[in-house]
Design a protein that fits this description.
The protein has 16 helices and 6 strands. By secondary structure, it is of the alpha/beta class. The chain has a 4-stranded mixed beta sheet, with helices on both faces. Strands 1-2 form a two-stranded antiparallel ribbon. β3 and β4 form a beta hairpin. The protein starts with 7 loop residues before the first helix and ends in a 14-residue tail after the last helix. The N terminus is likely disordered.
Length: about 375
């Protein structure tokens, strides 16, 4: 048996106390939670066996190698369930959709639906319970210190390529990121791809035959015209190539906005803060099936065997080939900057930053 349950009466008293505190100290905005000292260094029973013991120990030891920051956490990333007595930090592009659905099913908040159907639900129709809904920090910190906490890690570059493929390419039917982020990137970098033309990016919405007759373009050869027409398509659709996506991230980082990146490519450390919170259980995307099965067994300790929810693997948990192909499109200099941006993820979670090196550094 994994856990010793808190006495029900004692738990009720604690919760009543916390709710009373909330009523006395109600505040209106709880989108960010100030980080204080989390739970102690005790290792949870679920992580007492290998490889989970080493993951916890190594992560905590590596925390001493990085600079500590006075972060606040994004409250909506933390899902909780009072019946399960568990808190899950959901990191985008690290099986977050699958595990958010599992978490809701385990708490009987949602029925047995597929991941694809869940992904298509309107956000307001999902019965999420996360810290952003709490009135102040009291209950959030009670849960963080007393509930079992977990999150999932992934190789930073595989996560980056997965986010790119899912948000900015035609591999997905959802166009919101392409329409907003992709078009913005294409417009910002248009000067590098429009053969020196000074026309505004709105020419992308003109018919091709009309564009081909504009002064400057009418004197181009067929290859140059084809490049112009292709970039006009990118301006319309937001389907930027990977190299432009990477250069956008590097620009944001160099201009001091590294902490403001979209959550889908923000470093994992800045989403889940493992050095401040001392998680009880750490899963890895590369061993997701085994790690998830162990956690599900723990969370369903009191369920009948035939009613237990199982983790189903729908596809390979790694995307090595996709990442390799994507990184062959960028320079080694750009890869080195990406290593710096995601340095803490590599350091804390033990991933190899050189795995997708492509060529010698430029002299």
């Amino acid at each position: 048996m994994f856990r010793n349950r808190m006495d029900n009466k004692f738990r009720a008293l604690i919760l009543y106390f916390c709710f009373a505190t909330v009523l006395l100290s109600l505040i209106s905005d709880f989108s960010y939670l100030s980080l204080h000292k989390g739970k102690g260094n005790v290792i949870h029973s679920i992580s007492m066996e290998q490889p989970y013991f080493s993951r916890i120990l190594n992560t905590r030891n590596r925390c001493n190698q990085i600079e500590r920051h006075n972060y606040t956490i994004r409250s909506h990333r933390f899902k909780y369930d009072d019946h399960l007595q568990a808190v899950y930090c959901a990191t985008p592009k690290v099986a977050s959709t699958a595990w958010k659905l599992l978490f809701l099913r385990l708490g009987s908040h949602i029925g047995d639906i597929s991941v694809d159907d869940f992904r298509n639900l309107d956000y307001n129709d999902i019965p999420n319970t996360h810290f952003d809904q709490n009135a102040d920090e009291t209950l959030a910190w009670f849960r963080l210190r007393n509930y079992m906490t977990f999150f999932i890690t992934r190789h930073p570059f595989e996560r980056l390529v997965s986010a790119f493929n899912d948000k900015l390419t035609s591999k997905t039917s959802v166009t919101s990121y392409r329409d907003r982020v992709g078009v913005m990137i294409a417009r910002e970098q248009a000067g590098e791809h429009m053969q020196g033309l000074r026309y505004g990016t709105n020419i992308a919405y003109l018919p091709n035959w009309m564009v081909s007759k504009l002064p400057g373009i009418d004197r181009m050869n067929s290859t140059q015209k084809q490049q112009i027409m292709e970039y006009m398509r990118i301006l319309r659709t937001g389907e930027v190539p990977f190299v432009q996506f990477v250069r956008y991230i590097i620009k944001e980082y160099n201009e001091g906005r590294g902490d403001e990146l979209d959550v889908h490519w923000l470093p994992q450390v800045k989403l889940c803060h493992p050095c401040q919170l001392n998680y009880d259980y750490i899963m890895r995307f590369e061993t997701l099936a085994n790690d998830s099965s162990r956690l599900l067994e723990y969370l369903q300790w009191n369920r009948q065997e035939d009613s237990k929810i199982q983790f189903s693997v729908q596809k390979s948990a790694t995307q090595t080939e996709d990442t390799k192909i994507a990184f062959e499109q960028i320079s080694q200099n750009e890869i080195e900057i990406l290593k710096e941006i995601y340095k803490e993820d590599f350091t804390l979670f033990g991933y190899n930053p050189d795995l997708y090196d492509v060529k010698p550094l430029a002299e």
